[in-house]
Amino acid sequence: MPKPALLKQVFTLLTLATPIIMLTGFTGVQPIAETTPQITVHAAPAVLPPSPVPPPAGETIYQWRRPQLTENGRTARAEPETTPIPAAKRKDRVLNWDTGEGKSYLIPALEVAGFLIGLNIFDRIFLDDDRQGEGGRRTYYSTTPTIWHHLRDQNWEYDTDPFNVNQFAHPYQGATMYGLARSCGLGFWQSWAYSHVGSFAWKMAGETDPPSINDMITTGNSGSLLGEALFRMSQLVLKEQHGEPDAWHELAAAFVSPPTGFNRLVFGDRFKSPFPSHDPATFWRFRTGFTFDQQDDFTTDFQMSYGLPGKDGYSYRRPLDYFDFQISGLARASNPVGNVLLRGLLFGKEYEAGKNYRGIWGLYGSYDYISPTIFRVSTTAVSLGTTAQYWISRDLALQGTVLGGVGFGAAGEAPNAAGQRDYHYGVTPQGMLALRLVYGTRLAFESVLRGYYVSGTGADNLEGSEAVLRSNTNLIYRIYGRHGISLQFIEAVRDADYGRFRSIHQTDGTVGIFYTFLGDTHLGAVEWRNQQPD
After folding, report:
1. DSSP assignment of 4-73, as one string?
2. Cα–Cα distances in Å, from 126 out to 123, 141, 194?
């Protein structure tokens, strides 16, 4: 049973998690009914596409989104993605995502500079800045001489910040700078450059510590992946309504991507044009419950799959037209963010084999942050791989992702004679295998296996190496409507070797039970087949 002290922390996580359901919602797709009544479809002219064939009365529809029919039985045409802004409300320049008209390079440059200055002032005032930088200076009290010293000497090293600061806070800082550029109409790689330049500026002028190699890798790269995923999800929130989003949806989008909300508020109509998402197939779930291991935890968890392969007419021409994102929180003041797992297609294309198999393949970018009870691992990586779905039968779909690549990672706890840091950096070969079996609209079984090897190459400790293997198995059962229950089992193994130190072998097993709120009743299976019996 949960401990009384743990229950006192539940309110904190609920306060943070509630807006995910109440605000972000993604409620545009309504639940599919358990049974579908017979639909009478009137005859249509031959030039029109055939209307979807309804199943016999009493049978369940297995598709990712139900077609909307007009009163005469014809399939309703989708609203255009980019709704013209009335002339009376137009400014001098309004962003057009297709042509690039109205985008700005100057505005995000000024915003990133202002963000970094504000961050430095905040850190000086509110952080307990008892660390001493070069020359005995306090960490955030940078001056013209310290900036010139960093620019002149370029004395790069690995810093000693805590794991959650280096591997989560810094990527989120990068995502903020990325989002400022992206929401001003710039593309993925342009916004990626803003995030990297901002990260370099912070290392030169934001702190008196020597600039750190690890921060330049994680802040700009992981931050860009995270920033794009947050930007795409905020745009889904804004597009739930027809016409202009109301105040609740604006607030929800700002909650998901604060830079997007900031630019929409400050610049009015200029940056409010809907982003052309091309209507991806999506699946999301939110869950809350308890996990049980060496310490019981109240846990919240959100996951979204965006651009699932198989949907007719959807293509993968832009970075992260497909991505899978997951974040979980723990009721622990010392470790509030349990996991952030993100993978997205950077370059690739779709393919198919037969009528029941469709997928995508190419180069993926990933950002993993895993911080369980005993040991932790985090990487920024690029991988080759594929994501696909196969219809085994009418009601049974198998989805999967296979990735193999290399990145730069950190894992710990690692022995350190000075006691300054409990983790180790290095070049990290890694791989992932994810399988998901979906039965109709009722049941889904998921299993994900991840492996990391944090080597001594390009590392802060040439003698050190870490091997981490983590499996995550979930069973989701939809009880009624969008409400369900989930069971989870996580098993992680770590083997560490640090030369003259004793080799370490650790295992960590966690069992969880969750209430689950689903984005829809389709459970993530994308339907492209004709609704006909096998």
Report:
1. HHHHTTHHHHHHHHHHIIIII--TTSPPPPSS----------TTSPPPPPPPPTTPPP-SSSPPPB-TTS
2. 5, 13, 27
Rounded CA-CA distance 126/128 in Å is 7
Q: How many angstroms separate the CA atoms of 516 and 522, rounded? A: 14
- The SS3 assignment for 335 reads coil
Helix pair 106-126, 170-182: axis angle to 10 deg? 150
Please answer whether residues 291 and 512 qualify as being in contact, where contact means their C-beta atoms are separated by less than 8 angstroms: yes
- The number of residues in the chain equals 534
For the segment 88-140, what is each residue's pLDDT rounded down to a tens digit? 444 457 999 999 999 999 999 999 999 999 999 998 888 765 555 555 668 88
User: Residue 240: which H helix or E strand, with range?
Assistant: none
Q: pLDDT digits over 362-393, tens only?
A: 999 999 999 876 789 999 999 999 999 999 99
**For residues 233 and 257, is the Cβ–Cβ distance under 8 A?**
yes
Q: What angle do CA 74, 78, 79 make, to 5 degrees?
A: 130
Cβ neighbors of 425 (< 8 A, separation 6 or more) are 158, 214, 408, 409, 410, 454, 458, 459, 460, 461
Sign of CA dihedral 343, 348, 350, 351: negative
Burial 217-249 (b: 16+ CB within 10 A, else e): bbbbbbbbbbbbbbbbbbbbbbbbeeeebeeeb
